[in-house]
Amino acid sequence: MTDKAQIFARLHAGSDLLILPNAWDAGSARVIEHAGAKAIATSSAAVAWAHGFPDGELLPPEALLATVRAIARVVEVPVSADIEAAYAADAVAAGAFAARVIDAGAVGVNIEDGLSPPGLLCAKIEALRRAASRADVDLWINARIDVYLRRLMEGEAAYIETIARARSYGAAGASSIFVPGVVDPTLIRNLVADVGLPLNLLVWPGLPDAARLKTLGVRRLSAGSGLAKAALSHTHAMATAFLETGRSDPFAVGPLAQTNINTLMKN
Q1: Residues of the chain with pLDDT > 90: what percent?
Q2: Where are the domains of the chain?
Q3: Within a 10 A sphere around the Cβ of 221, how many other Cβ atoms?
Q4: 3.40.250.10, 2.40.128.90, 1.10.3720.10, 3.20.20.60: CATH of 2-225
Q5: For residue 35, what are the contacts with CB-CB under 8 A and spacing of at least 6?
Q6: In what order do the strands lie in the sheet with 220-222?
Q7: Predicted model pTM
């Protein structure tokens, strides 16, 4: 696991852009790895939907841990887990949960502030760092700032608050900063310059493509729940068509249609 933690850290270094097509179970993780992903990150929403739950820490934590464990078992690349707010109201509980996520095989986590005070996430990050140290894992902590995503503030106030939180989270031990909901190139460039840590963005309508993000200095791009939404939408469309016509030929198209998917999976 130590080697994978080092690999994951290197993927955020230099001038390259780490692109993460987020997975929701072991099977999707294997397919994403087969497609060429250098690391696997989960999406809390996608994992919850795969178990029939809505997002928002309504998925039982044991199901999340089982998913991380299953993914870590079947992929060779580093695994990062979206733990939302760590299923914890305080730092002690957050550290305890992080220890279990690390034990499940994750070398990175995504943890968010949401509507909670920034000081609480600082305390949780410090607890996560202590838990990782006890496990002898250099855990990559991706701290998500929800100011833009939840429209907590607007304009210059939103920027000032985002930078203040980023610096506080960095001082607490965060490895990178995740700012979903941002698309403007000038704003992105300014964030890269001012957050002080590698910047992670989320796919979003109007977001520049990977090549442009790389030139702006972004170091990580996450699909979030995007792949799962597309997969579920495609499943709904295919099921609707099959129920109407009973035709089988649509099932014989696509990049994996002629692949023995069974061979992609692992015992």
Answers
A1: 91
A2: 2-225
A3: 21
A4: 3.20.20.60
A5: 21
A6: 18-20, 220-222, 199-202, 176-178, 140-144, 108-112, 79-82, 40-41
A7: 0.96
